[in-house]
Amino acid sequence: MNKTSMMILGVAGVVSLGFMALGTGSSVLADNHKAADGLTAEATAQMAVRLFPSGTKTVILCSPTDSEGIALGQALATKLSGALLLVDNAHVLGQATEQALAALSVPQVAPAGTVQPFQLTSGKPMIYVLGNAQQISPAIIAGLKAQGYQVERLAEQGAGLVREIVDQVAPALPLPPDTAGFPRNWPVYAYGPSHNSAFKIPKSAPEWEKVGVRWNFAEDAAVPLNAPFPDLANLGERGAPVKMTQNLGNAVGVSAVNGIIYAESDDYHLYALDAKTGALLWQTGQLANNLMGNPIVANNMVYVTAGDTGFPFSQVLKYELSQGTSTLIRGLMYSAIYAFNAQTGRMVWRQDFHGNAMPSPVYYNGTVYAATGGGHLWAFNAQTGAVKWQTALQGFDSMSSPNVYTNPVTHQTEIVVGTSDQNHVVAVNATNGSILWTQKTALNIFNTGMGDNSPTVDQARNLIIQDSVVNFDKANHTTNLAIYAMNAATGQVLWATDLGRGNAPPAYKAGVSMIHNGVVYVGSPVTSTIYALNEDNGKILWTFPIKNAGPAGAGRGNAVYADGVLWVAAGPKVYALNPQTGQELGSYTPGGRFGIVNPVIVGGTMYLDNSYDWVQAIPLKAIDPSVTIHYQ
User: Fold this and answer.
1) How many whole angstroms from its chain centre is CA 461?
2) In terms of Cα–Cα distance, which of 418, 425, 458 is closest to 439?
3) For a pLDDT cut of 70, what percent of the chain falls above it?
4) Are 448 and 398 contacting, i.e. CB atoms less than 8 angstroms apart?
5) Which of 140, 159, 291, 564 to pair with 400, CA 20 to 30 A apart?
6) Chain segment 308-358, per-residue pLDDT in tens
7) What angle do CA 618, 505, 610 make, to 5 degrees?
8) In this structure, is the dihedral angle defined by the CA atoms of residues 184, 190, 195 and 200, taken in order, positive or negative?
């Protein structure tokens, strides 16, 4: 269902709203202490049908004599993007309302079994009844159920009804005592420079954090988790998953801060969910473009970037006429960086870009940094959005989320980012934007290369790990994936390892790596395999082939190490692996498919999102029943 973030601040705020809804976005003034003069069931029916010409999944049914219930119904209808209708009287639904309900059913416009993104599933709307038995009789409800409607009467009257509506429209924000194991900020893609987004909880943590929770939240464009890929007939099994990840669902993983799960989706919205229950706390959008990153959270602010994967024809032509020597700008539509209040979703500031803004930004020391398809790294004041500086990277950023490294000798902090055309990794002075070093590898990089992958930083060992597709064979359209280590202070390549040849991936052609205890874990969509490598020399320690990866390839998202287990979301499954041997310890199929998704683990729960536009919470024991949760 499409949900709008209407926040109601308390019981008194609900009762004193002082208006009644005639469907989403329409209202008339009313006296909360007497009947709604002149408000008829026929009028509300006519307006509801006009407001929802293609039907709706939700209808709020109220009594015309219950002004407080109508005010509450307006809040619920706004939140659920549903219509508000009135009964004729306590015992009669009324012809106008009955006809409106039929008109508000979502029509069947495609053959059964096909999936149409951004279109409601056909069928009758769910009906929520507000009012007690004296206001709307059980006979009306029984009649609706006999017609095939699903009907639920909310708490019948008074404070109970107010509380239930508030809980649905504006659930209470998580409190610190109930979120003991969660981080207080999320500064970098996949949480930290090493990309290991796992968090031990204290023994004093609440029981739900220890045992784990399970819930599914459908975002605005959610496709049923067991459905085939949309547009499968036209694009096939290689193209359909890519289109879905880039234009419909969640490209990368979620962020978890202070008991709130933040998820940004290609459906143009940013969501904040209660980590314990999955309840929607707030939602903002539509924004300027697809949202493809981890939300960055710091000091009660959430930072996201919006951009797309397209190239304007003028850029393609320019590149061809120059025989591949011209610098390209990636990004077809609008792009921007946004800052929102972390608790309410209210926009604080926005800055627009030339070129896409697909990668996640990074927060460091009061500054937010964003790399773009226009070929620049930007630095903004985190509180105001004022531009501090911008630096030309001599290449565009595709999906390479910047990372952070601080030199232990000079104490100089650098922002590290990969670029395409030219294909290189660049280190930029975090204070003034000057280029510290540029690593122009001698590897034969293919396509978007380094700009399509986020570098991983091992601060303790002064290393940067990056991987890129290399050595494309035009004859059979195969390629290799090479992973290499660089000196973080100079960019010097220390070792490089070929991870194997396979079909060239159709999109996001690399895999985000994760470092733990001297081992680099990385997946390759070229071979659809997870690898463990010795961080000192790049030697492959073990491999794990991903099952049912599909022709688009799998293994793009980084693994996570927690509780002595390596956790991976790849293809249609979540895996628990022995980090020393690669042996499978357990697996789970939550529905949908994973793109560049990194699991996020807090205590006994794994938080994920997927290409089908869902956010999910899964107990770790559902994946590996033998796992033992470790505490701080």
Assistant:
1) 32
2) 425
3) 91
4) yes
5) 564
6) 877 777 777 877 777 666 677 777 789 999 999 999 999 999 999 988 888
7) 20
8) positive
d(CA 255, CA 183): 10
Cα separations in angstroms, 191 against 104, 266, 293, 461, 609: 44, 20, 12, 19, 16
Can you tell me the distance from the alpha carbon of 596 to that of 250, in angstroms, rounded to the nearest whole number? Answer: 9
Which residue shows structure tokens 């359909």? 240
Measured distance CA(83)–CA(271) in Å, rounded: 23
Tens digit of each residue's pLDDT (9 = 90 or more) over 486-529: 999 999 999 999 999 988 887 777 899 999 999 999 999 999 99
Q: Is 444 helix (H, G, I), strand (E, B) or coil?
A: coil
This prediction has a pTM of 0.91
Q: Name residue 520's amino acid.
A: V
Distance between CA atoms of residues 77 and 98, nearest Å: 18
Q: How far apart are CA 562 and CA 559, in angstroms?
A: 10
Bond into 466 cis (ω within 30): no
Which residue(s) pair with 470 in the sheet? 445, 480
DSSP structure class, residue 92: B
Query: Is the Cα dihedral 246, 250, 252, 257 positive or negative?
Result: positive
